[in-house]
């Protein structure tokens, strides 16, 4: 059954030369559609179209276009082809091959953990994909079972907009991003992030694949983060050389982890060669470029395995999600077809034949935050732009520019998020988040909360925050 749902009245029927046949899903930056080409070539493709409300935001448009370029930068032999890109009605879009297959997350949930040759193939395939990403000077930053698809031609690694290029002029340390159960210590600590973070996540994913359970567990997200920072991983039934490699990848210090290419070399070595093969840490081959940000692959760049290593692969069961979510989409359930396009599915029924057990976790991308004035048009979700709980004002006080217009307690995040259609809102050590019904954490732009709280000031912005007084809002 196709991994998409029927088009809604507001959906386009064509994008560029492609005929739209269904909606795969909606995410923070755009909507992903299933489409076909001309009569001569009716191959299904995935088309991601920037949200209309973002098309007039220069930063959002620029970020989206940078992601397109980053998607094209990954070595062609290891990626699902970027079919094309363009602009329609001032809205940029990117077209990629469509991947039809379950995620590792879904596979392990349905069939259990894998061992032996299947696990070795999975390890080699995904490490090969990461090596290709890193050769293009891109860091994935959200590698996990949900971001690996088992396509008909083999497993592929997909990205949901969190990936960063190493060549931009922006800092990568502005926010904590990723999925807590698969985050490296440096991500949690908000330190500079480079390729070693992907190797840490790869190690955790392999452990999960081998055991059907996460290597670090706790009852709360802060507890999971603390376990990653200070605890020892539970590698369970993971054995042999793969266990040794995973242990190295899970070193707390990123400089002590191997590179993806070193992992590939170790996995490809014949048993007789293992005694002489050394696996130096990333400390000896550290990138001299400073990691910097351009969100890569908004279209969900899919990194294929260079060809061969397909079949019986695995995934995790449990609670991960994949939205790099900075747009207002209160409820997202991941399905494999949605994953192929790097987006949250339009409906839980998009792939009814597969189990979807993921729940989301804190993540961000370069897209808009929940401060955006628009939200999904689904009839069963609140419309953030028309929320009745939004404070109203009939006139604008004559407050001079750049002066304080009021303060908000930290608890304001919860009613703000609820007014936007989210299940709740909370403030963690690394910032405020809206929380979806599937437990996905979406970072909040506090400037937008100021404008929501003080609607008479459409250009209000946040000035400062302290634990006693809360947030201070300024007129702009």
UniProtKB/TrEMBL annotation:
**Record's InterPro entries?**
Kinase-like_dom_sf, Prot_kinase_dom, Ser/Thr_kinase_AS
Task: Indicate whether Endoplasmic reticulum appears among the record's keywords.
Answer: no
Disordered, as annotated region = 317-408
Kindly state which keywords UniProt assigns to this record, in alphabetical order. ATP-binding, Kinase, Nucleotide-binding, Serine/threonine-protein kinase, Transferase
- Could you give a GO molecular-function term held by this entry? protein serine/threonine kinase activity
| Membrane-spanning residues | none
Low complexity: bias regions: 336-353, 360-404
Q: Which residues form the Protein kinase domain?
A: 18-269
Q: Does the keyword DNA-binding apply?
A: no
Task: Give the compositionally biased regions (Basic and acidic residues).
Answer: 318-329
* Protein name (database record): Serine/threonine protein kinase
Species for this entry: Actinomadura barringtoniae
């Amino acid at each position: 059954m196709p991994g998409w749902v029927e088009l809604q009245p507001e959906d386009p029927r064509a994008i560029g030369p492609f005929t739209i046949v269904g909606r795969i899903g909606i995410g923070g930056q755009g909507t992903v559609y299933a489409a076909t080409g001309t009569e001569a070539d009716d191959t299904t493709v995935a088309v991601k179209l920037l949200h209309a409300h973002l098309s007039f935001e220069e930063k959002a448009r620029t970020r989206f276009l940078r992601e397109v370029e980053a998607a094209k930068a990954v070595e062609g032999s290891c990626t699902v082809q970027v079919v094309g890109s363009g602009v329609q009605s001032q809205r940029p879009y990117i077209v990629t091959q469509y991947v039809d297959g379950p995620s590792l997350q879904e596979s392990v949930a349905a069939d259990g953990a894998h061992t032996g040759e299947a696990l070795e193939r999975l390890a080699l395939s995904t490490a090969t994909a990461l090596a290709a990403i890193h050769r293009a000077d891109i860091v994935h930053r959200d590698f996990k079972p949900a971001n690996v698809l088992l396509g008909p031609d083999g497993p592929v690694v997909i990205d949901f907009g969190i990936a960063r290029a190493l060549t931009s002029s922006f800092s990568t340390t502005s926010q904590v991003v990723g999925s807590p159960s698969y985050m490296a210590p440096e991500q949690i600590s908000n330190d500079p992030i480079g390729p070693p973070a992907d190797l840490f996540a790869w190690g955790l994913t392999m452990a999960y694949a081998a055991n059907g359970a996460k290597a670090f567990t706790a009852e709360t997200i802060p507890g999971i983060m603390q376990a990653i920072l200070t605890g020892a991983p539970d590698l369970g039934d993971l054995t042999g050389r793969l266990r040794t490699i995973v242990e190295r990848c899970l070193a707390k210090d990123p400089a002590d982890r191997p590179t993806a290419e070193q992992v590939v070399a170790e996995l490809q070595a014949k048993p007789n060669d293992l005694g002489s093969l050394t696996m130096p840490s990333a400390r000896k081959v550290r990138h001299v470029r400073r990691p910097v940000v351009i969100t890569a692959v908004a279209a969900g760049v899919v990194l294929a395995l260079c060809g061969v290593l397909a079949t019986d692969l695995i995934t995790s069961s449990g609670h991960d999600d994949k939205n790099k979510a900075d747009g207002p989409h209160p409820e997202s359930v991941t399905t494999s077809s949605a994953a192929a396009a790097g987006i949250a599915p339009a409906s839980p029924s998009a792939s009814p034949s597969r189990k979807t057990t993921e729940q989301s976790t804190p993540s961000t991308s370069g897209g808009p935050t929940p401060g955006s004035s628009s939200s999904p048009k689904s009839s069963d979700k609140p419309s953030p732009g028309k929320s009745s709980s939004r404070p109203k004002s009939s006139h604008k006080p004559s407050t001079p520019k750049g002066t304080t217009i009021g303060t908000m307690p930290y608890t304001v995040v919860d009613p703000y998020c609820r007014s936007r259609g989210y299940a709740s809102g909370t403030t963690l050590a690394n910032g405020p988040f809206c929380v979806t019904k599937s437990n996905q954490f979406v970072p909040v732009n506090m400037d937008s909360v100021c404008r929501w709280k003080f609607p008479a000031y459409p250009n209000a912005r946040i000035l400062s925050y302290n634990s006693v007084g809360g947030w201070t809002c300024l007129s702009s």
